[in-house]
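User:
Care to share a sequence and structure tokens?

Assistant:
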Amino acid sequence: MFWYVDNSGMSGVGCLQKRPEAKGMMIETERLIVRLFREEDADALYRIKTDPQVMKYCPDFLDVEAKQADMLDYIHTFRKIEEDGDTDTWRCYAIENRETGEVMGALTFCKQKLLHEYDLGWMMIGAYTGKGYASEAAEAFAENFCRTHGVDYLTVIMDVDNPASRKTAEKSGFRLFEKRTVYDYHYNRYEDDYLYFRRYWSGCTMKDRYYGDSPYYGRSTSDKAEKQL
């Protein structure tokens, strides 16, 4: 179970009390708080940016050339996006340990321009990986966003050679939809494959969600053709 406070200050889902000091999106789980980055989180955001695993799988997180002095600008940008009610533009949310107050990682979120789907990601400081923090934050965020914004599912994409991230996705309720190959029309060549996951929220009423959910009868879907099969 988790509770949240949205931009209007309204609370929901198992909330014991409102937090009047909260501004912007906030979700609490058993161990975590998922919230906007604050100015005092600048050092933590840079630790995430420069973590060896983050640099390996997502070297362009924030920006390839981003410096420590740039962190406050990013944090101010994330806050403005949230205050404007913009659900599409790329931003980060802090993953905070409820007990210690430490920022251990970040969720990334945006609406993909090509497919117009909402995409979630996670970046964790190495010292906090392997403890289920990322999956706990991702599950709570995905459920909350879909419910409050009327979206059926969120997506996650990742390199095929990132088993730790795949484990996080599956643990947080995402299911592999398909393996995809990117074709670069500018250079007329194929690029690296990637894995594409979806997570449908608990109240979704869609019946056909993944390949194989409905029987396939070939090109014709008439009742006559189905009976013949």
The chain has a mean pLDDT of 85. Residues 133-149 form the longest helix (17 residues).
